[in-house]
C-alpha cells in the first residue's frame, strides 16, 4: 500500500460528556492515532474536570463518577496535550458529528483555531462495507468483529475499539475489486464530501496496485458480482444414475443420520418427541394423508419434518414444499438447519429458499437508477446505493433480508425490487444473473423448497405460475395459516400503494416513467413520435386528477372513523371502522362519486398508455426503451388492479366479506388502509390444499385447545378429511420437565379491570407488584400486555420505581426500535424489564439467563369489536353457536400458550410465570387456559405472599443448581 494512501494518518476521537446538549461539558477524552502502516501507534486519554456536576444517568451509562474527575486536569491543560496530536490528521469517530462539535467548541474555549482537516465517520464505512451487519452500534460491532472493548462508554476504550474497527474497514475496502471502487468513487464524486475524497484516493491507490484476485468475482456491465450465470447450477445428484435410497428404508436412513449427528455434535441427545414426529410425518406422506401435529418448544420440529421431507423427495423423486409464517424462521432453516443436514445426510440433496418476488433485487432497475442518479433524497439514497454496490460483491441471493438499509431503505428498495409486471424475462440483459430467476431455477431443481405462507397464496392467485408444482406440503407455524389466507384472498389497499403507482408514472414533468419515455421519444427521429408525446401530455392531467380525488376520498374515509386512543402510535388499527353492506354511512354517495371519477380517469390513462406501448412495439425503430416500457406496462397493470380493488370495496355488496378501514392519528388520512376480507376461508383452504394435495402436514407449538384439535379442524376446513379418515392428529410429549422448570403463580386477590384501561388502584397495585417481582428476579423479566394503553400507564411509574435498583425498563413503542432491536437491547442489559404488546406474545426467542420471569397482565382475548372477529361472531350466532366459547376462548388460549412458551426455551431454562388476571381462577372458562399448558407447577395465593414464594423458589432452584455442579 504505497503512494497517497500511505500519507494518510488518522486520529480516532471519542469524548464522554455530561449530556448531549451544546452546553454540556467534556468529562473524558480518548484519542487513538493510526499510523500509515495501519497500526495504532498511540493512545491518549484523560479525565477532564467539568464545571458542573455529572448527572446520575451519565454515571450509570459511563461508570464515570465525581471521584474520578475531582483531581483531573481542566480543559485548558488537556487541550494543550491533545492539539499537537491533531496535526495533519484525518479525524475519525463513531457518529463523528457529536465528537466534532465538542472538539470545535473546546478549541474555541481554549483559544485554538478550529480543526479544518478531513472528517470521516466509521458509521458510514460500516454501512457501506458491511451492509449485512444487524447493528452499527459500537458495542455490537465490537463483539461481531471480536474486537476487545472492555469498557463501553469510556472514551479511551471507545476510541481504541473504533480505531480497530476502522482498520478492519480499511483492509476490507482494499480487498474490493477495482470496478467496485470506481463505482463508489463515481457515486460520491458529485457530493464534494470527505467520503468522496476518501474513495477517490482509495481508487487512485488501487489503480497502482496489481489486483491479486481478479477471478473471485464476476464482472458484468461495469459491476462486480459474487454470482455467476444461474443456468450453470445443476441438479443435486447430476451424473448419479441410481437412486441413493432405492434400497434403504426410512428407519435405516434415520439410523445413519443419528449416527452422523452423534459424530458431529458431541452434545447431541436423541429426543423422543422428535423421533415420533419424524415417523408420523413419514407415515402421512406414505399414506397420502394430512397431519396436524402439535410440537412444543424443544421438540426440534424443523428436523422433525425436514428429514422425512428429504427422504421422501429423493426416494420418490417428487418435490416437498415447506412453508413458514415468518421470514425469521425461513432464515433460521437456511442458516442453521440446512447446513447441518447437508453435512449429515449421506448423499447430495438441495433445499432451496424461495421468497416472495419483492424480496429480490432487480439488477436492471438498479443499474438504471444508478446511471440516472434517480435519487429521491440524495444524501440517504447515495449511501444506500453505495451499500448495495458493495453488497453485490458479497450476496449470492440478492435478498433484501441480508441488507441493513436503515429507515429510508424501504422506499429505495421499492424502486429496485423485482416485480413480475416489469420483468423483461429472457430479453433482459441481466437475465442470466437475475436473482429472482436464480431462486426460481434453484427451487425448480431442488428436492425441498422452503417458502412462506404469503407466497403459497400469491402462487394460488397467479394460477400456480410462481412455485414449482408440488403434491406434499409442510406448514410450520400453522396457527397463522387462516389469518394469512384471509389477507391474501381478500383485499388490502394502503393509501401509499396507490400514490406510489401514480408518482412512479408521473411526479412532475421531469420525474416519473412517462416523462422519461417522453424524453426518449422527443429525441427520436420517428414521425409518429410527436403524436405519442402529445398523447403522453394528455395523460398527465388525468393522473393529477386521480391523485387529487384519491386524496379527497382518503380524507373523507378517514373522517368517518371514531377516535381511539388505546393503540400504539404507528400501531395499525389505532382507528378502525367496520362498514356494513346493508348500513352504508350517509356520506357514502360522496365516496362512490369520487371513486367513480378515479375509475374513469384511471381507465383513460390505462387505455392511452397501453395504446402508446403497443404502437411503439410495432415500430421497427429501436428506441432503447424496452426496460422503460416494461416498467410502464407493469405500473399500468398495478393501476388497473388498484382501480378494480377500490371499486369492489366501495360497492360494499358481498355478505360473505367483511369490509373495514384502519388508520392512525399521527399520519391521518395518509395512514389509511382499506380491507375487504372473506369472513370464512375454511372452504377455500379445503379446495386449494386439502382436496388437491396428497398430503399436508401442519405443525406449530400451539394447535390444540384443552387437549383437542377441534377448533383448528373447523377453522382450516379439515372436517371432511377427518370424517373420511384422511387426517392424523398428534400431540407430542414435551422434552422439558415443566414441573421442575416452571412455576406459575396467580395472586388470587388481585384487583380486576374492565376494558383496556386500568383504574388508578389497578395500575398502582400492578406497578408495585411488577417492581417487587423484578427486584427479586434481578430484572430479566418480560411483561406481556394486551393493550398498548395499559403498557403506557405502567411504563413511567415502573421506570421510576426501578431506576434506584439499577434495573432498566424498556417499553415497546416507548423506546425506539422494532421488536428484534428491543429484544437485543433486553438481552444485552443484564438487569432489565421488557414491556411488550401483541407482537411479543410469540416469535421472541430469549433462551437462558436473560429471561427468568414472565408476567401476563391480562388473558389475551382479541378485542371483540375488531371487524373480522365481530363478523365471525355474528355468523356463529346465526348458526346458534356460542361465539365466546367457539371463537374468543380458543383464540385466546392459543395466544396464551404462545406467550407462556417464551419462558422455557431449553432444558436448562427455568422461570416463573405470574398471571395477574384472576378470571383464570374465577371464571368457568379459566380451566381451558390452565389445562392447555404443558404442566408447570401451579399455585395461587394472596398477593402479599407472592414475592416471598417466588424468592423461595428461586433460592431452592439456585441451591439445586449449585449442588448439581458440585
From TrEMBL:
<dbReference type="InterPro" id="IPR014013">
    <property type="entry name" value="Helic_SF1/SF2_ATP-bd_DinG/Rad3"/>
</dbReference>
<dbReference type="InterPro" id="IPR036397">
    <property type="entry name" value="RNaseH_sf"/>
</dbReference>
<dbReference type="InterPro" id="IPR011545">
    <property type="entry name" value="DEAD/DEAH_box_helicase_dom"/>
</dbReference>
<dbReference type="GO" id="GO:0004386">
    <property type="term" value="F:helicase activity"/>
</dbReference>
<keyword id="KW-0547">Nucleotide-binding</keyword>
<dbReference type="InterPro" id="IPR006054">
    <property type="entry name" value="DnaQ"/>
</dbReference>
<keyword id="KW-0540">Nuclease</keyword>
<dbReference type="InterPro" id="IPR001650">
    <property type="entry name" value="Helicase_C-like"/>
</dbReference>
<keyword id="KW-0067">ATP-binding</keyword>
<dbReference type="Pfam" id="PF13307">
    <property type="entry name" value="Helicase_C_2"/>
</dbReference>
<protein>
    <recommendedName>
        <fullName>3'-5' exonuclease DinG</fullName>
        <ecNumber>3.1.-.-</ecNumber>
    </recommendedName>
</protein>
<dbReference type="InterPro" id="IPR027417">
    <property type="entry name" value="P-loop_NTPase"/>
</dbReference>
<feature type="binding site">
    <location>
        <begin position="295"/>
        <end position="302"/>
    </location>
    <ligand>
        <name>ATP</name>
    </ligand>
</feature>
<keyword id="KW-0269">Exonuclease</keyword>
<dbReference type="InterPro" id="IPR006555">
    <property type="entry name" value="ATP-dep_Helicase_C"/>
</dbReference>
<keyword id="KW-0347">Helicase</keyword>
<dbReference type="InterPro" id="IPR006310">
    <property type="entry name" value="DinG"/>
</dbReference>
<feature type="domain" description="Helicase ATP-binding">
    <location>
        <begin position="282"/>
        <end position="524"/>
    </location>
</feature>
<comment type="function">
    <text>3'-5' exonuclease.</text>
</comment>
<dbReference type="InterPro" id="IPR014001">
    <property type="entry name" value="Helicase_ATP-bd"/>
</dbReference>
<keyword id="KW-0378">Hydrolase</keyword>
<dbReference type="InterPro" id="IPR012337">
    <property type="entry name" value="RNaseH-like_sf"/>
</dbReference>
<comment type="similarity">
    <text>Belongs to the helicase family. DinG subfamily. Type 2 sub-subfamily.</text>
</comment>
<feature type="domain" description="Helicase C-terminal">
    <location>
        <begin position="769"/>
        <end position="944"/>
    </location>
</feature>
<dbReference type="InterPro" id="IPR013520">
    <property type="entry name" value="Ribonucl_H"/>
</dbReference>
<feature type="short sequence motif" description="DEAH box">
    <location>
        <begin position="476"/>
        <end position="479"/>
    </location>
</feature>
<dbReference type="Pfam" id="PF00929">
    <property type="entry name" value="RNase_T"/>
</dbReference>
<feature type="domain" description="Helicase ATP-binding">
    <location>
        <begin position="260"/>
        <end position="531"/>
    </location>
</feature>
<dbReference type="Pfam" id="PF00270">
    <property type="entry name" value="DEAD"/>
</dbReference>
<dbReference type="InterPro" id="IPR045028">
    <property type="entry name" value="DinG/Rad3-like"/>
</dbReference>
Amino acid at each position: 500500500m504505497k503512494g497517497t494512501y500511505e500519507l494518510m494518518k488518522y486520529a480516532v476521537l471519542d469524548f464522554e460528556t455530561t449530556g448531549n446538549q451544546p452546553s454540556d461539558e467534556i468529562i473524558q477524552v480518548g484519542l487513538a492515532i493510526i499510523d500509515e502502516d495501519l497500526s495504532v501507534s498511540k493512545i491518549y486519554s484523560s479525565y477532564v474536570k467539568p464545571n458542573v456536576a455529572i448527572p446520575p444517568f451519565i454515571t450509570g451509562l459511563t461508570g464515570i463518577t465525581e471521584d474520578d474527575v475531582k483531581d483531573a486536569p481542566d480543559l485548558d491543560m488537556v487541550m494543550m496535550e491533545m492539539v499537537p496530536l491533531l496535526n495533519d490528521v484525518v479525524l475519525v469517530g463513531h457518529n463523528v458529528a457529536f465528537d466534532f462539535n465538542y472538539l470545535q467548541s473546546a478549541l474555541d474555549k481554549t483559544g485554538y483555531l478550529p480543526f479544518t482537516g478531513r472528517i470521516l465517520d466509521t458509521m458510514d464505512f460500516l454501512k457501506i462495507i458491511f451492509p449485512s451487519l444487524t447493528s452499527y452500534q459500537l458495542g455490537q460491532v465490537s463483539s461481531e468483529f471480536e474486537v476487545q472493548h472492555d469498557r463501553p462508554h469510556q472514551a479511551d476504550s471507545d476510541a481504541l475499539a473504533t480505531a480497530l474497527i476502522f482498520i478492519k474497514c480499511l483492509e476490507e475496502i482494499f480487498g474490493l475489486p477495482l470496478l467496485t471502487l470506481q463505482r463508489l468513487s463515481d457515486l460520491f464524486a458529485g457530493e464534494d464530501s470527505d467520503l468522496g475524497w476518501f474513495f477517490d484516493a482509495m481508487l487512485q491507490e488501487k489503480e497502482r496496485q496489481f489486483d491479486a484476485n481478479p477471478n473471485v468475482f464476476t464482472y458484468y456491465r461495469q459491476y462486480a458480482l459474487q454470482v455467476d450465470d444461474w443456468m450453470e447450477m445443476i441438479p443435486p445428484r447430476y451424473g448419479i444414475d441410481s437412486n441413493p435410497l432405492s434400497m434403504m428404508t426410512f428407519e435405516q436412513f434415520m439410523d445413519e443420520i443419528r449416527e452422523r449427528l452423534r459424530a458431529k455434535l458431541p452434545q447431541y441427545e436423541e429426543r423422543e418427541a422428535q423421533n415420533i414426529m419424524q415417523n408420523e410425518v413419514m407415515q402421512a406422506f406414505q399414506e397420502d394423508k394430512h397431519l396436524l401435529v402439535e410440537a412444543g418448544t424443544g421438540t426440534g420440529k424443523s428436523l422433525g419434518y425436514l428429514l422425512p421431507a428429504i427422504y421422501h423427495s429423493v426416494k420418490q423423486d417428487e418435490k416437498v414444499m415447506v412453508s413458514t409464517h415468518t421470514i425469521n424462521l425461513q432464515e433460521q432453516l437456511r442458516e442453521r438447519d440446512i447446513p447441518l443436514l447437508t453435512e449429515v445426510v449421506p448423499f447430495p440433496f438441495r433445499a432451496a429458499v424461495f421468497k416472495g418476488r419483492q424480496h429480490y433485487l432487480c439488477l436492471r432497475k438498479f443499474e438504471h437508477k444508478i446511471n440516472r442518479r434517480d435519487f429521491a433524497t440524495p444524501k440517504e439514497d447515495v449511501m444506500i446505493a453505495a451499500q448495495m454496490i458493495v453488497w453485490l460483491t458479497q450476496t449470492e441471493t440478492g435478498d433484501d433480508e441480508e441488507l441493513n438499509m436503515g429507515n429510508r431503505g424501504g422506499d429505495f428498495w421499492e424502486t429496485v425490487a423485482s416485480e413480475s409486471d416489469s420483468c423483461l424475462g429472457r430479453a433482459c440483459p441481466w437475465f442470466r444473473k437475475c436473482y429472482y430467476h436464480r431462486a426460481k431455477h434453484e427451487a425448480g431443481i431442488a428436492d425441498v423448497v422452503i417458502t412462506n405462507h404469503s407466497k403459497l397464496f400469491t402462487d394460488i392467485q397467479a394460477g400456480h405460475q410462481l412455485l414449482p408444482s408440488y403434491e406434499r406440503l409442510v406448514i410450520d407455524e400453522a396457527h397463522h395459516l387462516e389469518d394469512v389466507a384471509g389477507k391474501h384472498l381478500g383485499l388490502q389497499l394502503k393509501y401509499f400503494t396507490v400514490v406510489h403507482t401514480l408518482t412512479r408514472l408521473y411526479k412532475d414533468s421531469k420525474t416519473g416513467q412517462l416523462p422519461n419515455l417522453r424524453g426518449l421519444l422527443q429525441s427520436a427521429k420517428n414521425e409518429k413520435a410527436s403524436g405519442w408525446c402529445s398523447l403522453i401530455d394528455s395523460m398527465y392531467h388525468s393522473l393529477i386528477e386521480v391523485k387529487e380525488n384519491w386524496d379527497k376520498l382518503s380524507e373523507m374515509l378517514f373522517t368517518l372513523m371514531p377516535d381511539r386512543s388505546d393503540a400504539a402510535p404507528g400501531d395499525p388499527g389505532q382507528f378502525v371502522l367496520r362498514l356494513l353492506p346493508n348500513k352504508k354511512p350517509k356520506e357514502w354517495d360522496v365516496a362512490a362519486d369520487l371513486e367513480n371519477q378515479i375509475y374513469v380517469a384511471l381507465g383513460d390513462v390505462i387505455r392511452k398508455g397501453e395504446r402508446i406501448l403497443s404502437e411503439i412495439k410495432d415500430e421497427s425503430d429501436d428506441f432503447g426503451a424496452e426496460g422503460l416500457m416494461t416498467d410502464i406496462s407493469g405500473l399500468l397493470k398495478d393501476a388497473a388492479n388498484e382501480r378494480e380493488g377500490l371499486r369492489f370495496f366501495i360497492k360494499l355488496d358481498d355478505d360473505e366479506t367483511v369490509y373495514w378501514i384502519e388508520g392512525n392519528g399521527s399520519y391521518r388520512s395518509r395512514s389509511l388502509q382499506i380491507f375487504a376480507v372473506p369472513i370464512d376461508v375454511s372452504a377455500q383452504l379445503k379446495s386449494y390444499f386439502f382436496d388437491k394435495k396428497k398430503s399436508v402436514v401442519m405443525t406449530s407449538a400451539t394447535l390444540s385447545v384443552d387437549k383437542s384439535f377441534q377448533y383448528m379442524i373447523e377453522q382450516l376446513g379439515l372436517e371432511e378429511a377427518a370424517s373420511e379418515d384422511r387426517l392424523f392428529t398428534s400431540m407430542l410429549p414435551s422434552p422439558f420437565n415443566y414441573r421442575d422448570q416452571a412455576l406459575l403463580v396467580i395472586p388470587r386477590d388481585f384487583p380486576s379491570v374492565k376494558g383496556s384501561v386500568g383504574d388508578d388502584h389497578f395500575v398502582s397495585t400492578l406497578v408495585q407488584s411488577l417492581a417487587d417481582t423484578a427486584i427479586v428476579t434481578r430484572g430479566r423479566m418480560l411483561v406481556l400486555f394486551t393493550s398498548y394503553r395499559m403498557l403506557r400507564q405502567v411504563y413511567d411509574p415502573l421506570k421510576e420505581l426501578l431506576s434506584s435498583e439499577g434495573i432498566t425498563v424498556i417499553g415497546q413503542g416507548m423506546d425506539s426500535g422494532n421488536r428484534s432491536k428491543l429484544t437485543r437491547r433486553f438481552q444485552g442489559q443484564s438487569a432489565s424489564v421488557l414491556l411488550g404488546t401483541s407482537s411479543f406474545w410469540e416469535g421472541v426467542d430469549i433462551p437462558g439467563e436473560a429471561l427468568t420471569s414472565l408476567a401476563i397482565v391480562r388473558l389475551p382475548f382479541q378485542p371483540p369489536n375488531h371487524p373480522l372477529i365481530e363478523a365471525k361472531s355474528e355468523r356463529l350466532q346465526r348458526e346458534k353457536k356460542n361465539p365466546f366459547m367457539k371463537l374468543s376462548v380458543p383464540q385466546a388460549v392459543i395466544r396464551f400458550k404462545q406467550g407462556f412458551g417464551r419462558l422455557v426455551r431449553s432444558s436448562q431454562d427455568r422461570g416463573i410465570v405470574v398471571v395477574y388476571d384472576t378470571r383464570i381462577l374465577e371464571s368457568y372458562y379459566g380451566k381451558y387456559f390452565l389445562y392447555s399448558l404443558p404442566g408447570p407447577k401451579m399455585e395461587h395465593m394472596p398477593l402479599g405472599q407472592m414475592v416471598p414464594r417466588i424468592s423461595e423458589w428461586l433460592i431452592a432452584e439456585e441451591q439445586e443448581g449449585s449442588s448439581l455442579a458440585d
